[in-house]
Amino acid sequence: MSASLALTHLVPLAKEIDNDKVTPGVLGFIVFAALAVGVWLLMKSMNRHMGKVDFEEGPESGTAPAAAAATASGKGEPKKA
Question: Which of 55, 60, 70, 72 is least buried, going by the fewest C-beta atoms within 10 A?
Fold first, then answer.
């Protein structure tokens, strides 16, 4: 009989929910989990693409910045038709 007495005292504590309290709920968790998975996939893709980049400078390292700047400003070689 004491087990049922303890249960009757604990049930009101378990159902004590504040209806004015706002929580993210299941939808908030699903959105957060989707964002986390999206960030993880983007980082995985970035690591794969960064692995393909060759960071070594070539023998023309002194002329490459000047050629890139001239091409970017439109003063590079004329386009062939």
Answer: 55
Q: Count CA atoms within 13 Å of residue 22 on its CB side.
A: 1
Q: In this structure, what is the dihedral angle of CA atoms 41, 43, 49, 55, given to the nearest 10 degrees?
A: -170
Written as six digits, the tokens of 80 are 């062939």
**Displacement of CA 25 from its chain's centroid (Å):** 21
Distance CA 76, CA 67 (A): 7
Contacts of 24 (CB under 8 A, 6+ apart): 32
**Three-state SS at 8:** helix
